[in-house]
């Protein structure tokens, strides 16, 4: 019986070996020890994105791209304009929603059918300083995608009935946004910090009162003034640069250069916004003057952001979840009543915001505000080598992992070229992260805390200390 069992096992191994040879196409077995360990693997090396190439056309339009060994492309147009340029607040927001609607050459139905015919998806987003139109499609259909992008950017019709439908959709979007308290409070921090009449203090989303004030004529005026070649960057991730330049010249090369239009500066002032609302939790934010995209402190501020971290009181935990960041360790883990505590960092061309958001029951707001103030003050006191190393490694991995995604690469190329006129390679950013020192961060924090605080409270605000009481803690 035992011999029979051994025979069965032997036969089984023989069958397994034959199956393996069949599956993997093996013709002989190699003694792995006969291959020196220092010999490189026969597998090809990892092939990432090619270096970003940038071409400037005669009318000022920029073309920027990196190619990828992949069958699909993300292609689009970055616009150097946003809500900071709205004459009526909400114009750029409605313009975003009017993307890929009827144009002089295509109806909305034709636009949708055209995208579906090439297997493409289309989207548009607006921010304070940029508007982005983009499409994801197969490489061979990039020319058709660029044609549709040009139609929606350069020749929109802004039909009244389509604008009315969009206004209704935006009204629903605003209702949903009001439920996202963290985003709402961070939005409120901008007029508190920069003043409601400054470009950065203008609302990012269209206020309900302006939905009927933004007419087709208002949108058309914005397009003619702001969507000019000198403010456009045709961007692609996963496409040959020379071909992209050729297509861009054919489609956009004939456009006349735009007139220079300066955006008034947004000076950081500090201030307060309180909104009473019937909420179970009170939402609070404390922010100070940060830095702009072009500031030398950009990378150190990013390290500070990662070091502070934070999140929700409920987390599945586990490695890589930021459980050892300061806001988790010192606020969420120490005060069970705090539901949210997280850092936020907003960069703009010339300035920025660095703040902490928190949420807790109204009766606990005094303690939460005190804890948030303490965390800011600790930043200028001491930062250990361990937490600095951890923050730098987390920031580097986040940067590099994100850039492996085609859509993120597209965003990075477009945003950097709009801001700098060039793209800083990831390797240089990693080196800058590695070079950050603890003393640099404490000095940066001390300088930041000298700016007037910006405070936001939403919900039952009666227990939130007065502005002057909070400001005195940093005097």
Automatic annotation (TrEMBL):
Limits of the Peptidase M16 N-terminal domain: 63-207
GO cellular component: mitochondrion
GO molecular function terms noted in the UniProt entry: metal ion binding
Peptidase M16 C-terminal domain sequence ranges: 214-395
Pfam family for this entry, one: Peptidase_M16
Gene3D superfamilies named among the record's database cross-references: Metalloenzyme, LuxS/M16 peptidase-like (3.30.830.10)
PANTHER family, A to Z: METALLOPROTEASE (PTHR11851), MITOCHONDRIAL-PROCESSING PEPTIDASE SUBUNIT ALPHA (PTHR11851:SF49)
Record family assignment: Belongs to the peptidase M16 family.
Function: Substrate recognition and binding subunit of the essential mitochondrial processing protease (MPP), which cleaves the mitochondrial sequence off newly imported precursors proteins.
Protein name (record): Mitochondrial-processing peptidase subunit alpha
Taxonomic source organism: Prymnesium parvum (Toxic golden alga)
Organism taxonomic ancestry: Eukaryota, Haptista, Haptophyta, Prymnesiophyceae, Prymnesiales
């Amino acid at each position: 019986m035992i011999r029979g069992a051994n025979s069965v096992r032997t036969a089984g191994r023989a069958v397994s070996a034959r199956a393996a040879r069949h599956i993997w196409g093996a013709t002989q077995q190699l003694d792995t020890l006969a291959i020196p360990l220092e010999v490189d693997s026969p597998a090809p090396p990892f092939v990432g994105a090619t270096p970003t190439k940038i071409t400037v056309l005669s009318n000022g339009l920029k073309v920027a791209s990196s190619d990828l060994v992949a069958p699909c492309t993300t292609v689009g147009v970055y616009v150097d304009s946003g809500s900071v340029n709205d004459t009526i607040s909400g114009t750029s927001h409605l313009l975003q929603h009017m993307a890929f609607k009827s144009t002089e050459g295509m109806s909305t139905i034709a636009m949708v059918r055209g995208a579906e015919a090439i297997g493409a998806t289309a989207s548009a987003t607006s921010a304070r300083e940029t508007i982005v139109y983009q499409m994801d499609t197969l490489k061979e259909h990039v020319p058709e995608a660029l044609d549709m992008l040009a139609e929606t950017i350069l020749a929109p019709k802004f039909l009244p009935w389509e604008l009315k439908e969009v206004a209704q959709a935006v009204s629903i979007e605003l209702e949903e946004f009001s439920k996202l308290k963290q985003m709402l409070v961070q939005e409120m921090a901008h007029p508190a910090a920069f003043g409601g009449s400054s470009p950065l203090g203008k609302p990012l989303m269209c206020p309900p009162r302006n939905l009927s004030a933004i007419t087709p004529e208002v949108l058309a005026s914005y397009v003619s003034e702001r969507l000019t070649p000198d403010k456009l960057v045709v961007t692609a991730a996963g496409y040959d640069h020379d071909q992209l330049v050729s297509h861009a010249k054919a489609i956009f090369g004939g456009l006349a250069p735009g007139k220079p239009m300066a955006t008034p500066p947004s000076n950081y002032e500090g201030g307060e916004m309180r909104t009473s609302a019937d909420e179970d939790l009170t939402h609070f934010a404390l922010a100070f003057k940060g830095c702009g995209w072009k500031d030398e402190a950009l990378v150190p501020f990013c390290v500070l952001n990662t070091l502070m971290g934070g999140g929700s009181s409920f987390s599945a935990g586990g490695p890589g979840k930021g459980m050892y960041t300061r806001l988790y360790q010192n606020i969420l883990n120490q005060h069970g009543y705090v539901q949210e505590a997280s850092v936020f960092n907003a960069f703009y061309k010339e300035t920025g915001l660095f703040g902490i958001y928190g949420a807790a029951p109204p009766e606990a707001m005094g303690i939460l505000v005190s804890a948030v103030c303490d965390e800011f003050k600790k930043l200028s006191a001491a930062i250990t080598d361990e937490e600095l190393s951890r923050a730098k490694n987390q920031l580097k991995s986040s940067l590099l992992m994100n850039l492996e995604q085609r859509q993120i690469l597209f965003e990075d190329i477009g945003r950097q070229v709009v801001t700098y006129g060039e793209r800083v390679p990831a390797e240089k950013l990693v080196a800058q992260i590695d070079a950050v020192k603890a003393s640099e961060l404490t000095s940066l924090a001390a300088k930041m805390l000298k700016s007037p605080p910006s405070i936001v409270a939403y919900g039952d605000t009666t227990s939130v200390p007065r502005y002057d009481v909070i400001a005195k803690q940093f005097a």
